[in-house]
Amino acid sequence: MPGSLEAGAWGLLAGSALLVGAAVGYLARIPRKVVASIMAFGAGVLLSAVSFELIAGAYDEAGLPPTVVGAIAGAVIYTGCNVVLARRGARHRKRSGDRQPSEAEQDGSGTALALGALLDGVPESVVIGTSLLSGGAVSAVTVAAVFISNIPEGLSSASGMRRAGRSRTYVFGLWAGIAIISGLAAVAGYALLGDAPPAVLAAITALAAGAIITMIADTMIPEAFENTHLAIGMITLLGFLTAFALSAAER
Length: 251
Prior knowledge:
By secondary structure, the chain is an all-alpha fold. Helix content is 80%, strand content 0%. It contains eight helices and no strands. α2 (32-62) runs antiparallel to α5 (140-163) and α2 packs antiparallel against α7.
């Protein structure tokens, strides 16, 4: 299979978890503490994957300066885009409760939510595509981490969208579209960065990592800890250790 098609297939697989989570979140009535626990697990998984796969990989590839510069750039870009979208109604896009505004409450919030979901998903998919550039197999840890974390993201967000009165067509159309774009972003990561020098590739990987870390802090952790219980920290650690175990097994 051509590398670009393989990258797209893995990106689509990881992105499809958003649709799975959205189906559960929209169709089922799940207690908010359960949603928070699932989100905490997903946050731990992503934090581990970013640490051991992306940041460590970028450092091994090109050293500290490109890694630091890329990570900071990713955080700055994500934060800037997130601020703009937050002002238009997407601030609480991963919240399962009553925080998400309806279109009647804030005109244009539906578009902002869609763009926010896209902003959250693209960096993860790009690194799936770039993980194939070494000529070997895709990083199973990265794909697994994105897949696992996408389920609670889709679940929590779709639950909040249902509470805000958004239609089933809107919710499932949005997440199906993001899943497809995830596949295309993985293809882009593979196709556009194939000839990039190691320092540039490392910086791009770190940029995605910085964006993902910022996304976790801005959108996933608030949902996980809003309806906290005493086991949330332990659940986050279990997610972290799950991804770490996958990373250790891959090595």
